[in-house]
């Protein structure tokens, strides 16, 4: 790869930020931009297969900072068993890609259910089932608390503290947490919980929180600097907690997706330096 | 007023649920429906004046369960002083209407600011300024934690615990909190915080959380039963905490607003009995 700017030594492109790119295209884009790591998604990996994706990344000299994503563990019965099987495959894929971090979006309320405690219990049971399997393969389950606006339909884990309450039941090498600025920036308890997280921090993801939220609230994730979050305090907090891994930029945004991906990477590098590292 | 169903003895119509109605129309609607209390909003009250609104309510034999709303206290300088003046007027209006509960939506980040701790500090300073003024007039400031999706633009108080941390700095008769199911249903700590709130609970508001959220996320508040919240545990929790006041139904929803208001009240009564009281 090209000689990197040392300030970019732990910067990672989450593949969703350049959604139109295949895995080989995103890998080549990272090389051109001097970005040393990439967070992969299962769907584009499946398009070329795990082995080919792993080879593309390795040949380019990149790291895989995470695989997105497993989870959706709140169903019961046959659907619940199918979800466990799918998560075991995701763990295998993470191992095959050479990353120790599998991000889990745990799932919302099953259709028609209002039993939030029950859904949370099924997540806990599923994590207990999957954690040893992950650990045996050198993969850590990274529980991602999602913004509370997704509690009903995507993740019944809503705060870092709640994710840690669950993660701490398991060995630290089996279950960690994701610190994603978009999801937790509003939390009055966030600094204490990042400090508490310590070695449980399996992934640090950044993007901004935009208002007004777009019609599809999944796409309210903006480029750093375009929204309301002050990033440097989060970078300093995860560092103070002992985190030395990559910082993934993960943006779901229609305007970003409509922009030339090489230009997105150029903007992302500049904003990362100005706002995450030095802000 | 008409003889009420005893099950409706503490039911209140928040005026925003029947947005097209003036104060006299909403009062008459409550009388027709046998609903004994009403939560008023400042703007429709201003259309006829505080004295006329107070007389309309009193003549009908209704209670005023709250006045919505003061707040928006995060600006500094001239705008901050103007906000304090406006809140003093809101306190006077609450007193004039015969309610001891002024709901405060505390405000989001000032335009262009990313200083969330600073905004929270200005809220605390403003509440300290207003609380004695309110107390002297027999009015309690009811701090409303809003759903975290509104943190940037409407309220930097996002959890009941955070609202209580602030409220507890003041005498209980001066500063309380609002328990609104829409805003806090997702919170893993909500039951402990309702128990902690005890006599600080100044208002209990119910409506459902809908998905997908509408394009204007302010309008995601649905009729009970149309969304994801299980209501009866919240009603039991506030009762266990000692709350004996009214349950206000406050819905912001384009479909509800397009429905005949008398029909809205009929549905609201039925859902209240089925899902809040007995669910």
UniProtKB/TrEMBL annotation, chains A, B:
Residues 30-259 form the Xylose isomerase-like TIM barrel domain. This is Xylose isomerase. GO terms for molecular function: isomerase activity. The keyword Transferase does not apply. Keywords: Isomerase. The keyword Isomerase applies. It comes from Micromonospora craterilacus. InterPro entries: IolE/XylAMocC-like, Xyl_isomerase-like_sf, Xyl_isomerase-like_TIM-brl.
